[in-house]
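Model it.
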Amino acid sequence: MSATEEILDKTGTDTALDSVRRLEEKLEDRKGAQEEAESRVTSARKEAERIVREAREGAENDAAEHRRATLARADEDAVRIVAEAKARAERLLSLAEADRPAAVREIVALILPGREA
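Modeled.
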């Protein structure tokens, strides 16, 4: 006879009931541990979602700030380029106006050979 059979013979139904109770307690403990683990997983997911959301918001804010700074620099460059172009155009216009009388004489000489203005 095995040790288990001896125990069952001595106490009979009490031992069987105790075994069932212990199994039920183990199942309840296991169920409690599983619920606790699920709760922790849920909390960890919420925390991860919060971290990702904050990181995304931070990245979007950084990108918006970078975009604003880039556009401001582009505007400054555009203003500078336009000012330089206007100054160059004014300089070319003044040079052209200064050479106008000589240009008129050349054209008249080409059109009307032998006559100068």
